[in-house]
Amino acid sequence: MITAIICAAGRGVRAGFAENKVLRERNGMPVLCCSLSAFSQVKEIGEILVVCRKEDEARVLPLLSPYPHARTVVGGNLRTESVYHALNEAKGEIVLVHDAARPFITKKIISDCIASVMEYGSGVCALPATDTTVLTENGFIVSAPDRKNVFTVQTPQGFYKDKLLAAYEKVFEEEREAEFTDESGIYAHYIAPPRLFEGDRRNKKLTFAEDFMPAERVGFGVDTHAFGREQDFITLAGVKIPSRSGLVAHSDGDVLCHALTDALLSAAGLRDIGYYFPDTDETYKDADSMKLLQEALRLVKERGFCPKNASVAVLAETPRLSPYIEEMKQNLANALSLPPSAIGIAAGTNEKLGYVGEGKGITVYATVLLKD
Ligand code: MG
User: What is this structure's pTM?
Assistant: First the structure.
């Protein structure tokens, strides 16, 4: 059996936050949940111990509820103390220690770590240095190690538990717990040189406030509808605009809303408008497309995103749209809970070219920017 020890007992001092940084949300979920999810997908891992501070435990426990084999261990002031507490609780023969502040860990990294422990007795995730590193004294370079021998060490770091625990016991016997920054240093000092395995550049540590900046996602959508419905208006962004003929559609034919709805769904990594609101479904016959837009917005918000701005380009030979643009902007702003200044609508003709130019239909392109 293998135990994953996830270190979540930090204070977020370097990020300048008043709270534990791994409990902060990034992309709609607490940072800690990313590591939990990755380790829970590896079948060899039978136990997950999340080391947290006593005062954070009430916030951590609900995050563990999807994972019956996960529980908390109260950590100490130093990382060394926290890992030591967890090692004393771990039931696994092998332990993998990981920093919760590295949420981009993948199943492959975890599997490579386990494979290294099985083969070499240890597995420390590391990357070849890309910058030149130097040793200094009083601000002057005294030597520069050969870059091919220099690695930056990450987590996870895997070991046989009995050996790592024995090393930790020596650390505490000798009261050197403040000297070591990770398991690999302790193992190297007391047991043997640990084996490195190559990690992944994406497995970076969220350290500073800017690492938590909201992620932005762009989405693109396009839709076309043909004229031919027997009515004297078309509907664009919920505004009825006089026209010699209406747009053919199962719904109200609001081609602008459809393009924008697709852009919104696409930005959040969701499926398209036809998937959620099929035109074979009688529910959506003559549907108010502004309602579909709002329903799509709900789906996007469920994913932890909200729109920042939307930009739309309408290609139509007729009718003339400029008198209606402000009202269309206001409708979209209301639907997306944005100020009208966050909505752009450009309307143009197609210079008599193609189906748009011949007045046979209208095409709309839309982009949306989402933030978390
Ligand atoms: Mg459509």
Answer: 0.64
